[in-house]
Amino acid sequence: MMNTRRSLDAQAMATMLLLCMIWGGQQISLKLAAPDLTPTFQIGLRSLLAAVLVGLVMYVRRERFITADTWRGGVLAGLFFGLEFVLVGEALRYTTASHTVVFLYTAPIFVAFALHWTLPSERLHLLQWAGIGLAFIGLALAFLGKNTPTVTQLPQQLWGDILALGAGLSWAATTVTVRCSTLAQAPATQTLQYQLTISAIMILATAGLLGQWHFNPTPVALSSLAFQVVIVSFFSYLTWFALLKKYVAAQLGVFSFMTPLFGVLAGVLILHEPLEINFIMGAALVLLGILLVSGKNWLLGLWTHR
């Protein structure tokens, strides 16, 4: 079959810009509503309600919810997806949304490293190895020399950063599971439904065990929940999958590199979060590393067409 995917046009770029703003803002929304709706509980509700919306789409399209050849990969991907957002919810209790979004978006680095050893077609180029090296130097720099207001806040923020990094690893594990299982050929809605349904059960149960079923239905909490369900988990994910079917994935991946930038900017402007100089420098190296890893084909194409 002929590959009909095309390069990004103005419409695709505008759509990706919107998606990056949405994804960059989801941790800020969770943090903003935290006093009235705990992040872990909100994420669990988000997954549950989004699963209902995706289920309605699948019903209208007459798509199958579960198939014999995909359920094992679907369960595993759902567990990793749930773990990712349990860790995100807990990370936001201890560290800033700015830190959380940057450490979460280290996932492409771990995906590239894992696929190098599992899929022959995904062997890393020298440029990508350089990107991985830069990213890990950036992580070390971001973790070291924190300048928090009090000494007692330092262990808490460090723990939150570690949880956010663990969320990035879990996200990478979800991606690798999808790529290396029968889910790679499954409809996007089915893959998303596995993740949303299993993660909803897992995250809501975790929130209950941690005593975090706290929901004060203020306008901020309700607005945040609506944003998380309708805009993040339903609209943005389905739009992303639609773009992947139409445009070159590598170019879309490079564009998504802007998400942490929007997240950090929103954290500073909306939540008034402080930024340490070492974190700024470390985050810049991490983002540069992500660009080298995810945008290898695009960067080499630019070089050869000089």
β-sheet strand percentage? under 5%
Q: What is the residue-averaged pLDDT?
A: 87
Low-confidence stretches: none
Largest sheet, described in full?
A: none
Secondary-structure element sequence?
Answer: HHHHHHHHHHHHH
Write down the Rg: 19 Å
End-to-end separation: 31 Å
Count of DSSP E strands? 0
Report the principal-axis shape. Answer: globular
- Overall SS class: mainly alpha
Notes on the protein architecture:
This protein is an all-alpha fold and 306 residues long. Helices cover 76% and strands 0% of the residues. It contains 13 helices and no strands. The radius of gyration is 19 Å and the shape is globular. The model has no long low-confidence stretch (mean pLDDT 87).
Short description:
This protein is an all-alpha fold. The chain is built from 13 helices and no strands. α1 crosses α4.
Sequence-ordered SSE layout with sheet pairings:
Layout: H1 10-33, H2 39-61, H3 71-94, H4 97-104, H5 107-118, H6 126-143, H7 153-179, H8 188-209, H9 219-246, H10 249-255, H11 259-270, H12 277-294, H13 296-304
Features:
mainly alpha; 306 residues; 13 helices
